[in-house]
Amino acid sequence: MTAELPKYDYSAGDQIPPKYAVIQVHLADLKQLFNSIDPSPFRNRDLDPEAEEFIVAWAKDFGREARLALLVRLDRPAGTADEAAMLRDAIHEFFRQRAHEQRLRLRELFRVGRINLAIGLVALASAVMVGNFVAKHFIVTGNDIGFGFGDFLRETLFVGGWVAMWRPLEIFLYDWWPIRKEVRLSDRLAEMPVRIQYASAPVTEAYR
Fold this sequence. Notes:
By secondary structure, this protein is of the alpha/beta class. The chain has helices spanning about 50-60, 85-140, 145-165, 165-190; strands spanning about 10-15, 20-25, 70-75, 195-200. Helix 1 (about 50-60) links the parallel strand 2 and strand 3.
């Protein structure tokens, strides 16, 4: 799925190569892209949550193999000469930070998984040993009721031991790969070309 670039009279920023999947955003002003309560300088400012969700959703729709680009269409004249470069740097920095946070989250998940795995293995080994001991104790007792009760206790302990393994297995089999997928998407968004389409050529009062 690839969107064709619209025809426009004035634009600035990175060139968007052919066959790139273009995420198009239509705004009245660039300020709408960013979180209004973030006091950080422009380059380090967080994206508005709705803008971030919109860009990420488009990127996911294009698929994992698509090469992404961002086209921002503004309903105002062009601003300063470095406006497009500042926007590109701000968006790249935001998604680099997003990827970094997701990598930290993945690292923490694996750390918790290793701890849970160690606990689960100890619990399972303990359950097996205790279960076998209990079963042998009732065998020594030497009656049919003892045999049945001993087997019941042993199987119950075995089940409890395997239940203790459920969380680490869930982490290492299922929980990590969605986060890894988000990391890769953020990396792609942190490298995409960014171009601005303006309603008209620059005027004397530039955007700040």
